[in-house]
Q: What sequence folds into this?
C-alpha cells in the first residue's frame, strides 16, 4: 500500500516495502489513487518518498511524468526523496533526472517547500 501522509501543507506519497520494485505489475492497483491525489492535493505540493524502492521500470517513469504534469498544471511542485542510486541511474539513462528536485530524506524534501512558502 502507498501511504498517503500530510505534513504541514505537503502531501507525501510513501511507497512501502511491497513497492521495492516499481513496475507495472505492482503499481497498477494504486495508479488511480495517486492520479487523484495529483489532481486534488491542496496545495499541490507533493513528495514522493522512494526510500524503500530499489528498482523502477518504464511504466513507473511514464507514470511519474504523468503525475508531475498534473501537479505542475495546477501550479504545484513534485519532489523526490530518498532516491536509490540504481533508480537514479535509470532516470539518467532516460535523460529525465533533472525534471525533479531530489532530496536525501523526506524531511529535507518537506523543508524545501517551506522555503518557498510566503
A:
Amino acid at each position: 500500500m502507498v501511504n498517503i501522509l500530510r505534513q504541514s501543507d505537503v502531501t507525501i506519497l510513501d511507497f512501502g516495502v511491497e513497492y521495492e520494485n516499481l513496475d507495472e505489475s505492482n503499481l497498477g492497483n494504486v495508479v488511480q489513487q495517486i492520479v487523484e491525489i495529483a489532481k486534488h492535493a491542496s496545495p499541490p505540493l507533493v513528495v514522493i518518498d522512494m526510500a524503500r524502492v530499489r528498482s523502477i521500470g518504464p511504466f513507473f517513469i511514464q507514470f511519474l511524468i504523468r503525475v508531475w504534469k498534473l501537479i505542475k498544471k495546477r501550479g504545484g511542485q513534485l519532489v523526490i526523496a530518498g532516491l536509490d542510486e540504481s533508480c537514479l541511474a535509470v532516470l539518467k539513462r532516460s535523460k529525465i533526472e533533472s525534471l525533479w528536485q531530489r532530496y536525501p530524506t523526506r524531511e529535507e524534501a518537506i523543508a524545501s517547500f517551506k522555503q518557498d512558502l510566503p
